[in-house]
Amino acid sequence: MSRIWDISQTLGPGLPVWPGDTAFAFDRSWRMEDGSPVNVGRMTMSTHSGTHGDAPLHYAADAADIASVSLAPYLGECLVVDARHARDAVRVDDLPDLGGAARVLLRTFEAFPHQAWDSGFTAIAAETIEWLAAQGVVLIGTDAPSVDPQESKTMDAHKAVLRNDMRILEGLVLDDVPPGRYELIALPLKIAGGDAGLCRAILRELPDA
Ligand SMILES: Nc1ccccc1C(=O)C[C@H](N)C(=O)O
Ligand SMILES: [Zn+2]
Ligand SMILES: [Zn+2]
């Protein structure tokens, strides 16, 4: 049985969310202890909380929602890169030879901030996105909550992703994943009109590993 790494955040009370965004909430609307034959929960959350995939609609008003995008970018071989040495943003010089990888996942946190929001996260420079696209990368993933800096108004990295029709995963948890090649499985929820989709993201050992 090939090894699996769960690279998803756990959704629960106190989940750190983008400043000012919707807090995560979960409760039970049907309870067995109240005589219901089943327990049924309900959730309130931002589309960009936890581990998620951005839809082009998030950064382009007339672009595809998450229910419309192809699933192909979210499934397949990927390269996990340790980019913890990067400073404010990941630059091309921070990256190793990609060996032709079509999906690149960047670890920027020393330890993923599960308990508190970290505004000082490492973004990805727009030039790096352009370089990755030129290398044939179709999906860029990061453990950061955004590919742009928190205070960005120009969204340069997201616009570079749009120009190159790439896909984005944000909020990955890569602390326990050694750099290297894996199979990525991270399918965003099919939300009509969704600007992002929550993912249960995993990595699976490649057969020839
Ligand atoms: N919740 C937000 C509210 C307002 C502005 C940004 C966010 C984000 O979460 C960033 C997003 N994940 C992004 O794709 O960059
Ligand atoms: Zn997002
Ligand atoms: Zn984003």
From TrEMBL:
<keyword id="KW-0378">Hydrolase</keyword>
<dbReference type="GO" id="GO:0004328">
    <property type="term" value="F:formamidase activity"/>
</dbReference>
<comment type="pathway">
    <text>Amino-acid degradation; L-tryptophan degradation via kynurenine pathway; L-kynurenine from L-tryptophan: step 2/2.</text>
</comment>
<dbReference type="GO" id="GO:0008270">
    <property type="term" value="F:zinc ion binding"/>
</dbReference>
<dbReference type="InterPro" id="IPR037175">
    <property type="entry name" value="KFase_sf"/>
</dbReference>
<keyword id="KW-0862">Zinc</keyword>
<feature type="binding site">
    <location>
        <position position="52"/>
    </location>
    <ligand>
        <name>Zn(2+) 1</name>
    </ligand>
</feature>
<feature type="active site" description="Proton donor/acceptor">
    <location>
        <position position="58"/>
    </location>
</feature>
<feature type="binding site">
    <location>
        <position position="170"/>
    </location>
    <ligand>
        <name>Zn(2+) 1</name>
    </ligand>
</feature>
<keyword id="KW-0823">Tryptophan catabolism</keyword>
<protein>
    <recommendedName>
        <fullName>Kynurenine formamidase</fullName>
        <ecNumber>3.5.1.9</ecNumber>
    </recommendedName>
</protein>
<dbReference type="GO" id="GO:0019441">
    <property type="term" value="P:L-tryptophan catabolic process to kynurenine"/>
</dbReference>
<dbReference type="InterPro" id="IPR007325">
    <property type="entry name" value="KFase/CYL"/>
</dbReference>
<comment type="function">
    <text>Catalyzes the hydrolysis of N-formyl-L-kynurenine to L-kynurenine, the second step in the kynurenine pathway of tryptophan degradation.</text>
</comment>
<feature type="binding site">
    <location>
        <position position="170"/>
    </location>
    <ligand>
        <name>Zn(2+) 2</name>
    </ligand>
</feature>
<dbReference type="GO" id="GO:0004061">
    <property type="term" value="F:arylformamidase activity"/>
</dbReference>
<feature type="binding site">
    <location>
        <position position="54"/>
    </location>
    <ligand>
        <name>Zn(2+) 1</name>
    </ligand>
</feature>
<feature type="binding site">
    <location>
        <position position="158"/>
    </location>
    <ligand>
        <name>Zn(2+) 2</name>
    </ligand>
</feature>
<dbReference type="Pfam" id="PF04199">
    <property type="entry name" value="Cyclase"/>
</dbReference>
<dbReference type="InterPro" id="IPR017484">
    <property type="entry name" value="Kynurenine_formamidase_bac"/>
</dbReference>
<comment type="similarity">
    <text>Belongs to the Cyclase 1 superfamily. KynB family.</text>
</comment>
<feature type="binding site">
    <location>
        <position position="54"/>
    </location>
    <ligand>
        <name>Zn(2+) 2</name>
    </ligand>
</feature>
<feature type="binding site">
    <location>
        <position position="18"/>
    </location>
    <ligand>
        <name>substrate</name>
    </ligand>
</feature>
<keyword id="KW-0479">Metal-binding</keyword>
<feature type="binding site">
    <location>
        <position position="48"/>
    </location>
    <ligand>
        <name>Zn(2+) 1</name>
    </ligand>
</feature>
<comment type="subunit">
    <text>Homodimer.</text>
</comment>
